[in-house]
Specification:
alpha+beta; Arc Repressor Mutant, subunit A; 3-stranded mixed sheet; 4 helices; 6 strands; 33% helix
Length: 142
């Protein structure tokens, strides 16, 4: 588990001052055994509940985006107005459950990475990650 000194270093390396609220954001994000997915709004609510005080959405937003820019978090865009963040920054695939709005990591054995036959001129492929959207199949509910 990470300690306050490591959180302070993570914040400073991301260009942020280590305030009480930002240290709490680090604790919630990085002081756990398993990686997880979150939206900024959900993270702000969770931290406010844990701190027992309101945390500025702007503080959470700026901290999360600074961590993303530094490579400590990954952003997964579900559509044009909904993004999740992932504490697992390795290349991996996801399921998105449209019924529960839950983002779930896919086991590498479930999805075979597609082969890209042609690249965009002047660009190189950094990664290929698949997002599979799923919902309850009402046809098979009978």
């Amino acid at each position: 588990m990470l300690k306050n000194a490591e959180f302070t270093n993570k914040l400073r390396s991301s260009g942020l001052r280590p305030t009480k609220q930002r240290l709490k954001i680090c604790e919630v994000l990085f002081n756990r055994d398993h990686t997880f997915h979150f939206t900024i709004n959900d993270l702000a609510k969770n931290i406010s509940r844990e701190l027992n005080e309101k945390i500025s959405l702007a503080t959470v937003y700026n901290t999360v985006h600074a961590f993303k820019k530094k490579g400590y978090l990954k952003e997964i865009s579900i559509n044009s107005d909904k993004s999740y963040f992932d504490t697992n920054t390795t290349n991996h695939h996801h399921f998105f459950d449209e019924d529960t709005n839950e983002l779930i990591d896919c086991d590498d054995k479930i999805i075979e990475t597609p082969k890209i036959k042609k690249n965009i001129l002047g660009k190189k492929i950094n990664s290929v990650e698949v997002l599979v959207k799923v919902a309850t199949d009402n046809q098979n509910q009978k």
